[in-house]
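tool=predict chain=A
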Amino acid sequence: ITAYGADEFLIENPLKRYALGDRDALTFNADGSLDIWIQAQAPDTPAKLSNWLPVKAQAPFLLNARLYWPKDDALNGTWKMPAIERLH
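tool=predict ok
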């Protein structure tokens, strides 16, 4: 997942992290699920920090997901990307 500002450019941030993907050292939940924290402020725990995709506070942003070599379920529409859940 890549975050872009409203100007469609990458969002500058102190981590120089512009995307999260399968090659990143992400922290999975005990049940195998994955939470990605898309927010301006750094998360409060190290486990969440590895899954943080920084954006600007109070500014619109765009998210783009790229699927390389997608499985048939993604191609035929039976798989749906999980919805984004706003927590605050």
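The chain has one domain: 1-88. The CA atoms of residues 8 and 62 lie 7 Å apart.
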